[in-house]
Design a protein that fits this description.
32% helix; Alpha-Beta Plaits; four-stranded antiparallel beta sheet; Rossmann fold
């Protein structure tokens, strides 16, 4: 299949805010992932042999399939990006480039290096070398076109909370599974069964491949295309959602239906300025917030379901 790469290059006094707003435009147009370029980015392992040069500009990229509705979608993209420039402190320009499936997947490899998520968890791309510490749990990942590489602060925050709040012997559901990193982390930390749901069929396929790559047996996981309640028949002990704030707020309306009292809910993808609205919604739906952690302008909350009448 042919794809069109749309790259929004931007300037702003608040790059994180601009990145989030532009990413949201792509999500609203139906994409499940974006590619972010940051000239200030430096991998933990440094820029080694064979690495690409640093990006020249801050940008957010999305990939659209070339079909009959593409011109309408690009018109919306250009209109909404222009609207952002008028209402926020940013200037943007859009560049387009035709690409193939293979080009899209391979472009990730140049930027993806081993990264430590927590005290024990390390994400390593399959094509890189890494010498683990004795206590390390190494997660092998080939993100393909699912765009989940573990490098984002929200993924790190979730991984640390999964490790801290003991996934051992629990059932865990990952809402928005992406490339399966958090499912694999929970399984390696001793979770009994891990479930994942994602609306993107490609992401689900890649998550399954990565789970098997990390020697998680078929009887310990299920990845399904669809919504939260479609995935499993029972009620999980732990639910993790590393998604957008607005989606978390909607999720909290139905979340109590599939949670037992005492169940844990870990959510991230929350811009710190929006964390009060998530906190209020959690409290209003029977959750007790146990902890909130922040990193690079993002918030992650751990809460325990106590019941609506608690």
């Amino acid at each position: 299949m042919k794809w069109l790469k749309a790259q929004v290059i931007f300037e702003s006094t608040d790059f994180e805010m601009a990145e989030d707003y532009i990413s949201q435009v792509f999500y609203d147009l139906g994409l499940s992932g974006v590619e972010v370029a940051d000239p200030l980015m430096t991998p933990d392992e440094g820029w080694g042999d064979g690495a690409v040069s640093k990006p020249e500009f801050h940008s957010v990229c999305g990939y659209f399939p070339c079909h009959d509705n593409l011109s309408r979608i690009l018109g919306r993209l250009e209109s909404e990006v222009a609207e952002l420039g008028r209402h926020h402190d940013m200037t943007c320009r859009i560049m387009y480039q035709n690409t193939d499936d293979e080009d899209w997947a391979e472009s990730w490899k140049a930027y993806f290096w081993p990264i430590r998520l927590s005290d024990r968890l390390v994400v390593k791309p399959t094509w890189r070398e890494y010498s683990p510490e004795p206590s390390d749990i190494v997660i092998e990942i080939d993100p393909g076109m699912a765009f989940g590489t573990g490098t984002h602060a929200t993924t790190m925050l979730c991984a640390r909370m999964i490790e801290k709040y003991a996934a051992r012997d629990k059932t865990m559901l990952d809402v928005g599974a992406g490339s399966g990193i958090l499912m694999i982390a929970a399984a390696h930390l001793g979770a009994k069964t891990v479930y994942g749901v994602d609306f993107d069929r490609t992401a689900c396929q890649i998550a399954r491949q990565n789970l098997l790559l990390n020697h998680i047996s078929h009887d310990r996981f299920l990845v399904a295309v669809g919504s939260l309640i479609d995935c499993i028949g029972g009620k999980p002990d732990m639910i993790v959602a590393n998604i957008l704030t607005d989606v978390i707020l909607e999720l909290l309306i139905t979340l109590p239906d599939i949670m037992n009292p005492g169940g844990l809910f870990i959510c991230s993808g929350i811009i710190t300025a929006k964390s009060p609205s998530v906190l209020a919604r959690l409290l209003g739906h029977g959750f007790l917030v146990l902890e909130e952690a922040m990193q690079e302008g993002w918030s992650c909350m751990v809460s325990q379901y106590r019941g609506i009448d608690a």
